[in-house]
Specification:
- There is one protein chain.
- By secondary structure, the protein is an alpha+beta fold.
- Helix 2 runs antiparallel to helix 3.
- It starts with a strand and ends with a helix.
- It is globular.
- It has 3 helices and 3 strands.
- A hairpin with a 6-residue loop joins strand 1 and strand 2.
């Protein structure tokens, strides 16, 4: 299933996930810090949605209350609500 999410409060403009049976099979991130987000994308690929939420939820960027990883966790939490 393809799932798109527009993050809030970060440099990234869009997350595009491919999720099959609760596992992330691919993720593309539009905008943001290219190198870091490429690494995060590779690291979470093949991981279960719940595991990624647990790992990334609550991470902050400098003085902001959120970060791209935190927004990924929020995106996946929203995905779970829609698909439960």
């Amino acid at each position: 299933m393809l799932y798109e999410y527009q993050p809030v409060g970060v440099c990234s403009r869009k997350f595009i996930f491919e999720i099959e049976e609760g596992k992330i099979t691919n993720v593309d991130i539009v905008g943001g810090c290219n190198g870091n987000l490429q690494a995060i994308s590779k690291l979470i690929r093949t991981k279960m949605v719940n595991d990624v939420i647990s790992l990334l939820d609550g991470i902050k960027c400098n003085a902001k209350d959120t970060s791209c990883p935190d927004q990924i966790a929020k995106a996946l939490s929203a995905y779970k609500k829609i698909n439960s």
